[in-house]
Design brief:
Elements lengths: L8 H31 L5 H28 L8 H7 L12 H20 L2 H7 L2 H25 L2
Helix pairs in contact: 1-2, 1-3, 1-4, 1-5, 2-6, 4-6
């Protein structure tokens, strides 16, 4: 069945590819955050454990919204570790958990990376008149920038 939502096939494909990168970054950041939630240690354990749980829950909910936008554009959403590994700009958390403040730093950088990946799509979204995706990414960027700020604040003395 043909899709006729007012966005050309070419634009829908390009947007879906861009969103696939956002999805991969978000999923990788989710995994890293959940990993750090499980493995954080030290004097800040309770506060970081709780904060990481809030963050990975928010990321988990965002994954579905991003994937469903890709589907609504008529394309398959990536869904395997292999695909995410090829599409993400975020490094996977190391197998030996870092120290608590190194976790905070890595997550702050991860949130900044997702914001950059999402922001890179706006010229294309403007050209395609894709307001729903622009709205979605505007909200995601806001969440990632605020979370990065909060994480960076922990690192300041």
């Amino acid at each position: 069945m043909t899709i006729n939502i007012g966005i050309s096939d070419q634009h829908r494909e390009q947007i879906a590819k861009g969103l696939s990168h956002v999805l991969a970054d978000t999923f990788t950041l989710y995994l890293n955050t959940h990993n750090y939630h499980w493995n954080v240690k030290g004097p800040m354990f309770n506060s970081l454990h709780t904060m990481f749980e809030e963050q990975y829950t928010e990321l988990w909910n965002a994954i579905d919204v991003i994937a469903e936008r890709i589907r609504s554009l008529g394309h398959d959403a990536p869904g395997s570790y292999a695909e995410f590994g090829q599409l993400t700009s975020i490094e996977q958390a190391p197998s030996n958990p870092p120290k608590a403040l190194e976790m905070v730093d890595a997550l702050a950088k991860g949130h900044e990376a997702v914001a950059r990946t999402a922001r890179a799509l706006f010229d294309l979204l403007d050209e395609a008149n894709d307001e729903p995706t622009a709205d979605l990414l505007t909200e995601r960027i806001s969440v990632h920038e605020q979370t990065a700020w909060m994480l960076r604040s922990i690192l300041q003395e």
